[in-house]
């Protein structure tokens, strides 16, 4: 069954297709049947290309060149990693925009094996210029980001997850949101790991910032949060490859002496299927594992 974010994506996209004649949605079999209703109303703007992800992106680029605003959807490894050359050439190089909406996160569907896991998608896409990369932690945040992306001509990557925080944070789509204040360091958490980080930092004298938009990076808010710290220790907690945004932190804090710990999905492949929670524990991204890593870093 699709996660709540993916269901909301389908519902909102169908509404947007009805309301905006410039919009089109492209699928590569994944979630295609969920669009049957809107496809019946707009068969020219709801297209399933089959299991042809390179074609998915190339068609998005061609539609964008013709003035259409394409929304392309698949699992993250099939939407970003497999057709990366087409993203580079048919979108970036052509100077056109699109909305790429992925599902599955890093290992939300761990029982499907390594082929369906993509912890490196954000790091890979961030090598290209001009992308807005959004990692919502709640269905309401995902909807707000999708609605905003649909009416622009920008390059937007919306990374959906099967998991969700218990609440949405208003305004988080525009920059980092302060969830907690403290003096011994700053913990920046991205998207659906916010609940785990809040539990992990309970009782610790740290500032917790929350991000659903990780590119462009909110240098101003991070620098402001760092300015009042007794110990400029920065912990970055990302639900994809560990260290993906460490260079962004360094840029934001240029000229300030600081130390950074990047937590996330480890580089070593886990050769077991397991559940999402078991993968969290293995990568130290459950509340207990995060608590150990953060507390130990603050004591160094």
Automatic annotation (TrEMBL):
Coiled coil: none annotated. It comes from the Bacteria. InterPro entries: PDH/Transketolase, THDP-binding, Transketo_C/PFOR_II, Transketolase-like_Pyr-bd. Residues 3-168 form the Transketolase-like pyrimidine-binding domain. This is Transketolase.
């Amino acid at each position: 069954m699709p996660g709540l974010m993916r269901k909301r994506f389908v519902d909102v996209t169908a509404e947007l297709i009805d309301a905006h004649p410039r919009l089109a949605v492209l699928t590569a079999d994944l979630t295609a049947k969920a669009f049957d209703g809107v496809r019946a109303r707009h068969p020219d703007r709801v297209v399933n290309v089959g299991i042809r992800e390179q074609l998915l992106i190339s068609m998005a680029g061609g539609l964008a060149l013709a003035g259409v605003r394409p929304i392309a959807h698949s699992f993250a490894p099939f939407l970003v990693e497999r057709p990366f050359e087409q993203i580079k050439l048919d979108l970036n190089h052509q100077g056109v925009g699109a909305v790429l909406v992925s599902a599955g996160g890093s290992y939300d569907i761990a029982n499907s094996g390594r082929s369906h896991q993509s912890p490196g998608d954000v790091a890979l896409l961030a090598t290209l210029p001009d992308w807005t990369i959004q990692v919502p932690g709640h269905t309401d945040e995902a909807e707000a980001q999708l609605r905003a992306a649909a009416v622009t001509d920008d390059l937007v990557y919306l990374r959906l997850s099967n998991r969700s925080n218990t609440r949405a944070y208003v305004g988080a789509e525009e920059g980092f949101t302060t969830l907690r204040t403290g003096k011994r360091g700053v913990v920046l958490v991205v998207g659906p790991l916010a609940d785990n980080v809040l539990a992990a930092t309970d009782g610790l004298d740290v500032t917790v910032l929350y991000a659903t938009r990780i590119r462009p990076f909110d240098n101003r808010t991070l620098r402001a949060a760092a300015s009042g710290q007794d110990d400029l220790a920065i912990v970055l907690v990302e639900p994809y490859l560990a260290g993906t945004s460490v260079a962004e932190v360094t840029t934001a804090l240029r000229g300030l002496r600081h130390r950074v710990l990047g937590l996330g999905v480890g580089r070593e492949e886990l050769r077991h299927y397991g559940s999402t929670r078991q993968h969290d524990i293995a990568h130290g991204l459950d509340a207990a594992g995060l608590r150990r890593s953060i507390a130990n870093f603050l004591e160094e």
